[in-house]
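Continuing from yesterday's entry. The apo prediction looked reasonable, so today I'm repeating it with zinc ion included to see how the binding region is handled. Same sequence as before; SMILES copied from the compound registry.
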Amino acid sequence: MITSAVAVPALLIAQAVPELDGADRDADVSLPPDLADPSPPRASGQPDGEVAAGRHRGPAPARRTPPVPRVPEQGPGTFQVAAAPAVSTEGATTYRVEVEDGLPFPASQVAQFVEETLTDQRGWATRHRVVRVDGHADLRIVLATPETVDELCTPLDTGGRLSCRNGDNVVINAWRWQFGAESYTGDLTGYRRYVVNHETGHALGYAHVGCRKPGELAPVMLQQTKGLEGCEQNPWPARADLVDH
Ligand SMILES: [Zn+2]
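Holo prediction written out below.
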């Protein structure tokens, strides 16, 4: 018998088997959309009215593209803990946000994104009070390089491309943070919202579910990195997972 994960008491921190998330390694390693050139091709030739001599007739100057942050495959295994304001944590599930040294994502910015996600009224905040701290916490939400993710997720095999929840660690793969997944093509922010909500959802006691009906919004606890099973992408649990519960 399969029991519904959402029946788990709200503030219980799940200690069950770790969860591994992500696609088959080969399924979505194509060039991510945020690296694709969004600009239309330039017309060649000189601007109208250009009458000058040959020194103006060289190739157009190289177009500057925004630098793409480099995500190393491995890091030192040390982390920056994002500072957090002192707030009441009574009755709350606490978490702290950590970013591995060497990643091009400042801990303060990652923490802001995670906090926005977990306090959004489209999210778990409708059912759970989760509070960010920078000291002892119930959960660590860690953004790490692929090899460090592998270590933190052991005994799971992440293949360097997956994220997981393992015990009190919510481990997000920086490769996914940068590249997203095919199911969220063109919406990296949406993918990041999804992966934070999905992995934190495990820590709050929720297990995987499938797409209930093709065309409907995907539950956050569907492994959307793998695909959508005919559902529509959706990073917000209050829109699907928590409906009718
Ligand atoms: Zn999962």
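Comparison notes:
- Strands lie at 19-21, 79-81, 93-100, 130-132, 139-144, 163-166, 169-173.
- The first helix runs from residue 107 to 119.
Will overlay with the apo model tomorrow.
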